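User: My collaborator sent over this chain with a note saying "see what the structure looks like." That's all I know about it. Can you take a look?
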Amino acid sequence: MTQTAVDAQVDTAPGPDHAHARRWWVLAVIGLAQLMVVLDATIVNIALPSAQRDLGFSNADRQWIVTAYSLAFGSLLLLGGRLADLIGRKVVFLVGVVGFAAASALGGAAGNFEILVTGRALQGLFGALLAPAALSLLNTTFTEARERAKAFAIYGAIAGAGGGIGLLLGGLLTEHASWRWTLYVNLGFAVLAFAGGLVLLTAGRPANRPKLDLPGTVLVSAGLFGLVYGFSNAETHHWSSPQTWGFLVAGGLLLAVFAWWQTRAAHPLLPLRVLLDRNRGASFLALAISGAGMFGVFLFLTYYLQASLHYSPVSTGLAFLPMVGALMVTAQLSTTLLIPRLGPKPVVPLGMGLAAAGMTWLTALGLHSGYAADVLPALLVTGFGLGLVMPPAMSLATDRISPEDAGVASAAVNTMQQIGGSIGTALLNTLAASAATNYLTGRRPTPDVLAQAQLHSYSTAYWWSAGFFTVGLLLTALLYRRGRVTQEAGAPVAVHM
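Assistant: Without extra context I'll predict from the sequence alone. Here is the result:
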């Protein structure tokens, strides 16, 4: 049996049967922690109007409840991944869980806007420790091909479905308790994840600890901060504003310098061997594109259901559950059956094509569309598509990674999703707002015209999301290697160039 432990050094190993059982309990702990992090990308969104009324902050300030989390999370992920390689994944995982819970408690108890934003920023900081540690634990725990496929199917389904679950849970808590419980709910997840991690994960530091690349850490953290901040500003400032393009240019330049430095650093933060494998590079792109495209579903369909069809927050969350179910079904199918038999080249592009078709279907929604006939089929098609993209891409992005690089490779997976999501949110919000403005030009702003303008803005966002997935189809079809991905039983997960 492969090892249950998740660091390169292993304590006294238990018997084979016990080891097998522990591996799947480790997956349960990792999945619970990942769900906690993914939920917080959407669970607070539905609660924002209630929090705004309670704490009395402005519409302009409201975006910072979301941006504070994404800024800290996106800019510190690679550092968090390398710290997991340096210190030990169990320690970083547990610190991340405790810190995330404490930050959630702080935000939930906030008496003013400043404390709430601080709590959200701290959530992002500790999430940047927790998320890459969790994925690297999964990567180093499951090395046998068949078990790895099942484990990544479950993990990928959680990562893809967490946004929809967050909308449902956020709606339930906001409607029947308080907006504060969208933050307090993390305490329950954290207690279970911490207790499970403390018992099940093996202590110890990696045998070959890399040194921390301080210049690289500063460059990439500042560069990612610039990109996320610049795209976030695009939602409230024009693209011509220095607060938008200035940060984007600065972020891009810093990341270019970081890439140059990684070729010369004695102990690079993100070794280029992590990125240069074709299948791995294609997987990183697939995750970024799916992260950008998914916001067309979660963000604008949420607006449509609540503003146009007048759904309650709970009904809106329930409306997404079939998509979550479809995603989970195809997550299992893609990683355990299709990828081992066909390889990624036909599977991931097919998923991108289905997701593009689902988004295109949504463009036909009108003010009197029905859920069963119009919304549900598009959600199912999109869910089937995402299930063929996200779990296989997550698995392949960390496949054949040496143990000393597992943390930073896992961080790169989360970074690509986060940057993709930030870009998608900013672009789609800006394009949708412009479409609504253009629609109103020359028309009297009657209630019916305003409703049609809103509908036109949603349709524009769906078309662009479909475009993202179409680009993803072309790139993954071009970049993925032909043939199956093979892994010898018991072989070390070495990098294949």
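A starting point for your reply to your collaborator: Residues 55 and 113 are 6 Å apart (CA to CA).
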